[in-house]
Design goal:
CATH architecture of the largest domain: Alpha-Beta Barrel
Radius of gyration: 20 Å
Distance between the termini: 36 Å
Mean pLDDT: 83
CATH topology of the largest domain: TIM Barrel
Strand content: 5-15%
Low-confidence stretches: 1-34, 384-407
Number of strands: 13
Number of helices: 17
CATH class of the largest domain: Alpha Beta
Shape: globular
Bound molecules: zinc ion
CATH superfamily of the largest domain: Glycoside hydrolase/deacetylase
Helix content: 40-55%
Amino acid sequence: MPAAFINDASTPRTSGCAAVLAEVSPEDSCSSRPANWRDFVAHTIYRTGMLPVLRGISRRYQIRTSGRNRSFRVSRVSGPSFAILCYHRVGTEGIPYYCTLEPSVFEMQMRYLREHFRVVSLGSLCEEIRNPSGSGQAVAVTFDDGYSDLYTHALPILRKYQIPATVYLIADCVRTGEVAWYDRIFLALQIAPGPTLSLPFLPGEFKLGSPEQRTAAATRIVSILRRMPAPVKNKVCSALEAQFALPAEKLAGKMLSWAQIREMRAAGIDFGAHTLSHPVLSQLSDHEVTRELADSKRFLEEGLGEPVLDLAYPFGRPEDYGARTPAIAAQCGYRSAVTTTRGLNAPGADLHRLRRVQLGEQESEASFGFHLHLEFLRGADPPEHLADAGGPLELCREEYQSGRGGQ
Ligand SMILES: [Zn+2]
């Protein structure tokens, strides 16, 4: 096998968390995205010292678009909006291959939050959604999956800026120390010999001629598998790993251990559940969904010695978690459940369909501040709209790409 494909340094990088295998569509990747008008505007606003003006406007006004011609309507802010930032890893090496975030960029983002926003814990944010305090806008920080570089790179920064955060753990990964199925696929595609790869149940050949093609092939395979029934997905994963053994050193120590989790908890980090095995919940029966949600909750509670009240749906789009899962989450005793549907949350929002914002790929203070203030300028959708957004295909990637809606 070409050694270059095993070398982490040769792996094409995406800045921020940017692939369909996790909670973001590949189109959201910024590393290959040319500078667009938003980046130009962001840096122009920053260079001209107008960012504080935008910040002030976003606290007082909302700009909503409506209709086919996307007409604008400006109104005064009538109530608080709540942003939940969604991150995955903080680091650049090895698994997860779909995602990188330079610790220095993460620090810039946390410093900006500390200086310009009211940063609250997820629990406080949920309480404010239920009973608005009149304190205005607030931001909470969350991490999905529980990669171990959160302990190495994120924890010191979170402590430095006193940022409360919630980490959603995949119970099986904590129990076994092994990475999730999609991370194994990405590693397999990094080391697979030959210029092409064929897999059972999947049409055609996947090109592996370059590091970029390998990452694209892995993204494509995971994208297909997440929509297949679990037994088929498992067969494809087994067939893939039967062709070549995954190097143990590439898999070791990538997920948070109990020792790291407990140290982070002692430092004030909160933990939520991210199911047992990171499945596509909409592909499971209600009984299986209940098992994924209830057993992961119980496992983490036993390990932490305290209630686990918050949940993140794997992949996070409505078509991924399914229409019935929010009710099951509530029945299992979860206080909240976050999605990857883009947007802010208004008072009264459905706590088991909370929206989030992903800005990890914004590498400059100009773009991070601009995009976050822009989210607040757009404002939160009213609760009744959120309640209508639970159907399996009512929100889609195209809506996300257009600037509103889910992914
Ligand atoms: Zn996840």
